Amino acid sequence: MTKRTCVAVSLIWILSPSSGFNPGEFGPDWAVPVAVYAQQPEPVDEFVPIDELPPQDQLPAAPLLIAAYAFVVLALFAYLLSVARRLGRVQRDLERLQAELKRGGLG
Amino acid sequence: MPTWFTPATALCGLMFAVSPFLIANAPYESTMGLVQKIFYVHLPSAWMFLIAAIVCGVASVRFLFRGDARHDRLAWAAAELVVLFGIVTLVTGPLWARKAWGVWWQWDVRLTASLIGWMVSVAYLLLRKYGGPGSDKLAAGLALFGMANVPFIYISVNYWRTIHPTTSVVPTLPTSFGLPLWFSTVTFLLLFVLLLRARVRLEEQRAQLDSLYLSADA
To answer: Tell me: the pLDDT tens digits for B55-64?
Structure first.
């Protein structure tokens, strides 16, 4: 076996998965260019105005924002109203009962 | 009601009137744009949700060990606020996520733990309403689980892989984002205190009504 063949066989063995050799262990420089290239998006052939997108791809933010703020206002207002109504009802019951007790009993 | 209640209510109303102007003048976030402005109600309501769960849990512990009905009334009032601020958080979050993440909901740790915390408080209220005699102690035990969930909700984003922003976002906010956020937070905190006081007042009056009925029967 020549020296060149020995070097080639050694390189094949080192780079094969069974060798356990992991280029990532030797720093980020080994595999990064390949990985970055693989992650690159497809090149753009043309620009598409947003209003020409199909409806399922258009998602304006304003309705979501308005819905969120409207829900907050409605939820807080509904709870305030609920507490005020319950307080008013108990207050009326208290006043009625106190008046009946003053008159001399519930019966 | 205490003497501070009316001026505090007026101040809270004023702050709620001013906060939309601050939020509207805040800059747009670079990647999320307009929808990021949900942040100014989502985060304060989430904080009130967690604070209410802590108040409910602490009051329940004190009720369980001391048997003081005042603590039970505070826990019941706080549990309602957990449900209120919890539903606000759980509705505004998905409305933001739909645009920012492309989905309404993710079963990640923070969202799932928040939902569980909210359901624990709903269970607390159902137990108080339909549980019959002894449900106060059972509900207090349930509130402990709700409180134990709070630190888990808070730190979960730092320990698990999630698309929800981590807790490091708020301390590093520039003033232009921070000012409306903190103003909104103080407004929500004031509202929380006022609602809690009003709700405790309701329970106090109910207790007074019960004692009057008992004295009338005797």
So the answer is: 999 999 999 9
List chain A domain ranges.
1-40, 56-107
3-state secondary structure of A30: coil
- pTM equals 0.80
Residue B123 pLDDT > 90: yes
- Of the candidates B99, B195, B202, the beta carbon closest to that of A64 is on B99
Tell the CATH topology of B5-217: Four Helix Bundle (Hemerythrin (Met), subunit A) (1.20.120)
CA distances from B74 to B9, B57, B84, B131, B209 (A): 20, 10, 15, 18, 17
Residue among B84, B195, B212 whose CB faces A101 most closely:
B212
Tell me the chain B residues in contact with residue A50 when contact means C-beta distances shorter than 8 Å: none
Do A59 and B37 make contact, defined as CB atoms within 8 angstroms? no
Mean pLDDT value of segment B6-11? 95
ipTM of the complex: 0.91
